[in-house]
Write a structure and sequence with these properties.
Oligomer: single chain
Strand order of the largest sheet: 2-3-4-5
Order of helices and strands: EEEEEEE
Number of strands: 7
Largest sheet: 4 strands, antiparallel
Radius of gyration: 13 Å
Helix content: under 10%
Distance between the termini: 10 Å
Structural class: mainly beta
Length: 111
């Protein structure tokens, strides 16, 4: 899969909630740090701030929200990935440094 768009994140701002345009629809996305077990989770809210998903664990190279199929969820696939394939998990120390949130939005890729 080619990655076409990058969601810019500053790892020093986690936990964070931000707006993201996915397939022409604006969502609110929250990133949280589970410090006890060293992983990150994602919350997704619709434009009315209604929670769609709370606490989905980020797993390297696994699409977010892949278990949800109703029409409230974004069409483009979002994948936390390290394109160099050196990282094995998503953490607060590597998100935005070596691991990035990529969107496959159907456009041309430079990769």
């Amino acid at each position: 899969m080619a990655f076409n768009t990058l969601i810019e994140l500053n790892p020093g701002e986690i936990p964070v909630v931000f707006e993201v345009d996915l397939g022409g629809t604006v969502y609110l996305m929250g990133i949280n740090n589970n410090m006890e077990y060293d992983f990150l989770t994602v919350d997704l809210f619709d434009s009315d701030s209604e929670a769609l998903v709370l606490g989905e664990k980020m797993i390297i190279d696994r699409p977010l929200f892949e278990d949800y199929t109703d029409d409230r969820f974004p069409g483009p696939v979002i994948i936390p990935s390290d394109t160099s394939k050196n990282e094995t998990k998503v953490t607060a120390n590597n998100l935005g440094v070596t691991v990035f949130l990529y969107i496959d939005d159907g456009g041309d890729s430079d990769d």
